[in-house]
Amino acid sequence: MEDENVKKLHTYLARCWKGYLFAIVSMVIAIVLDMLYPKITQQIVDDVIFGGQLGLLTKLLAGIVIVGVGRSIFGYCKEFTFDKMASKIGTEMRKDLFHHIQTLSMDYFDQTNTGELMARVKDDVDKVWNALGYVGMLVIEVVIHVTFVLYCMFRLSWKLALVPFAAMILCGVTAIRMERKLDEIYEDISEENAVLTTVAEENLAGVRTVKAFAREKFEIEKFMSHNKRYYELNIRQAKTLVRYYPFFQFIGKVLPVTMTILGGIVVMRGEITLGELVAFVEYSRNCTWPMEMLGWLTNDVSAAAASYKKIQKIYRESPSICEKKSPVVLQKVEGAISFEGVSFSLEGREILKDVSFVLPAGHTLGIMGATGSGKSSMINLLQRFYDATEGTVKIDGTDVRDLTLKQLRSSIAVVLQDVFLFSDTIEENIKMGQRKLLPMEEIRKAAESAQAKSFIEKMEEQYGTVIGERGVGLSGGQKQRISIARALAKHAPILVLDDSTSALDMETEHQIQKTLEALKDTTKLVIAHRISAVRHADEIIYLKDGAIAERGTHEELLAERGLYYETYMAQYGAGKDVINDRKRGAADGS
Fold this sequence. Notes:
590 residues, ABC transporter transmembrane region fold, Rossmann fold, 3 domains, 6-stranded mixed beta sheet, 4-stranded antiparallel beta sheet
């Protein structure tokens, strides 16, 4: 799989190795120039001030200017290149992670919160991005800088150099201890951040429900409990930093003073010159900032490591629904559908039991049943969001498991009861099925067929009107009509209507039914609770507890006086009295 190749961090770094190499070379040059400055200072003290060689002063001052300018140029190249490479890798990581999430099957999303995925795609990638950019640059710079400084110090006086060398080892050991403690905390912070994001996302998405049930206080308290937990974890992080960070600062401040005192003693003994001492103290000052940075860098690296683990956890997930290595590609999908002894269980619960039917291309099948009887699961199996536990689902005589997912799903247009509209223009929401190919005339025609044209064209921007998130600002019926227009515009050979007219008035539903009846070459599956939505179907099946309890045409099922008949009477006629009489008769017969 492609994701297996791109999920490891080193694969991203390998793609940008030239950029990082240029940045590191620029860094090395800048550090070498930094190392020259104390040497120039040494010459000014020894050769100019004490040696009286005033002619050297101009050259040495010019050297300081050249070092400063060169340091600025290569420092800019270093920082800009690191930022550019990190931005490139961060963008690629986010794209690849989002692509991998899109390939996962529905069962993964059934078990994973949206907020958690949002936290991984945004916050966690940002932390890794930061570690590969500015923070990573500083980590590398600290290592190279310290190496060069120690080399220069040991050349001047190996005895004096032992002191900063020991201080650096001590700081390194302390940083490792701090990193281990922070690593545990960042695991918890990352998890709580995902939970907090989920709670916020759910409440904002369901704000109408929250207000309708006057649950604002309860939801605020729930959010505040997670917010408090997030606060406490961050306080733990701060306490860990406060416990260790002053140590790095203390070493950084004390070291130059210590080296000045010890160096003065060595100078008085005649082992080094005063200029060498001045250079040595400058080098010791160059040791202080890496020590002070260790705590902060360890903090950010720990956060990035924890985030990377979370990202890797997603990459370890693989889709349960996969295409075969050599899938079947139909030259043309006619739309004939068959279920052959299909049973389906999910999480140990049996949903469908031995469902069989044949729906010829261009015909209509009505599916009815109580809530939870398995109606929508049949559509999920047809689109292969899940695979049947037993039996076979076929399109045009070919097992859906043998088809490519692209051909299978692009051949089916679905209108769901729970309409999802994107925060975009009405035009883009209708074009979704044929985003690149659909002309404006086809969009208008689809909207007219879905009885949506009239209210759309009354809007100020018409088809360019931007609707809110999930269609906020539109009525339930308007959203359903846009959703129907989207499905009709796709011109798929199979059309699935999952209780898609439940929010429409009877007149609008009747007009849409006439439109659907005119689609002679389209195979239609109509899931409904209303008799009016399925009465003209070529065959109707009535599900009960996941099995087909009744099947036939509208007239045949009425003649059977069974479950379908009860539903019909409840919606159109004597209703409860007829049903109760039937039940009493059945009890007397028993």
